[in-house]
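Retro notes
What went well: the complex prediction finally ran end to end.
Inputs used:
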Amino acid sequence: MILESLSTVLEKNALITAFAFVGILVWISYEISGHLTRGHIHGSAIAITLGLVLAYLGGRATGGDSGLADIGLLSGVGIMGGAMFRDFAIVATAFGADIDALKRAGVVGAFSVVIGVVLSFVVGALVALSFGYTDAVSVSTIGAGAATYIVGPVTGTALGADSGVIALSVAAGLTKSVLVMIGTPFIAPRIGLNNPHAALIYGGLMGTTSGVAGGLAATDPKLVPYGAMTATFYTGVGCLLAPSVLYLVVRAIL
Amino acid sequence: MVIYGVALLSFCMLVGVFAGDVLGHLIGVQANVGGVGIAMLLLIILSNLSHSKFTLGEPTEKGIGFWSAMYIPIVVAMAAKQNVIAAVSSGWLAIVAGVAAVAVSFAMIPVLSRFGADDQHDS
């Protein structure tokens, strides 16, 4: 009756429900930030972490792969947090960005993308080796997954990797993006991540768009456009290098 | 009008993502290469151009500003729809690989930051 029609209304207006839900979530997070941590931990960092915890619980409850968005009432969270709105909002943050900071860091920014891809790939490949994988295809696929969870499956599919290995590569990429979201605000002061120049390099080295988007939002929203700018090139460069040059190098070594 | 700003933003995003797709096809990878980055550059160029050639009205800027301000809530929603279960439950290899990649990348930031920053920092 009343409960039923309420849930029908919420489900029919899924995106609007998501706006209200996220609004409450953000409000709770800022309350926690202000009262419990006295502002030491930024409200958006708490909101993002709470989001991830809820995603875990949602995944537990439904067995689906979209976290909280698999719960019928909250399916709008999936639309609101999907790639379309995320990218739209990221582009909007570029409005008012300092064009000179971009120009200055142009070359280093491009370098950081290539270095970031190679670095993550090598680290992932070494971990795969230490866990007993010895064939070039599996090692490359897991290495690619350590770049981002898109580069992993793209590389694995191109090289004909086992589906279990592809799943591992996705999981490695997901771990990376979750960790970047949570870890960035804590590590930022130690690595000098407090200016547009460092943010450009950070985006290029990390590469995970969602990780960088969440990490910078929780650190200093003013830095978002710079990090996001380089990060969006990372997956493309990764898909270019991992199944080709990097795979050939791995095959030559093994 | 607010819609002018939203439309300008949409225009930049569509052009950028399209260019990123074309770029991906041209170099033969199954991914969008820098689509969002190109869109951001386009928006920056158009909005800087506007200062000298024409002016964006205040409502137009509000149309862009609204979506910029919605960025954090959208990222919170994005966090809430991640496949966290898959990240934490598929064994140590994935976790170790992810953690190690992040740690090494973080460590590289101060190293790379030194390059090209000479003209704005003394250190």
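What we learned: Chain A has a mean pLDDT of 88.
What to try next: split runs per interface for comparison.
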